[in-house]
Amino acid sequence: MIDLRTLRPLDMETVVASVVKTHRAVIVDEAWRTGSLAGEVSAQIMERAFNALDWPVQRVCGAEVPTPYAKHMEDAALPRAETVVETVREMVR
To answer: What CATH code is carried by the domain that includes residue 64?
Structure first.
């Protein structure tokens, strides 16, 4: 697991090294899937480490809705741990 604490500069060397080691990538981002940083990281993985992948890059992102103010609705719009676990399990079957 890599926590990208800084986005500029984006530490793609660490991400690519992880993909080469694990042969897989799951990107979790609270932002929307469309036009998100997850899309950029995914694109760079495909450009730099495509041949190392055993499975397509997966993205688990927030719902494509404006972020709600109400806490229960915000929680529903953000990526859930269960979804991340389910995605990873599907990749390693």
So the answer is: 3.40.50.920
- Measured between alpha carbons, how far is 89 from 40 in angstroms, rounded to an integer? 24
pTM confidence score: 0.89
* Backbone dihedral region for residue 82 (phi beyond 0: left; psi -120 to 50: alpha; all else: beta): alpha
Position 5 in a domain: no
Please report, for residues 18, 19, 65, 66, 75, the alpha-carbon distance to residue 1 in angstroms, rounded to integers and kept in the order given. Answer: 8, 11, 27, 28, 22
Give the pLDDT confidence score for residue 80 in this predicted structure. Answer: 95
% the chain with pLDDT above 90: 90
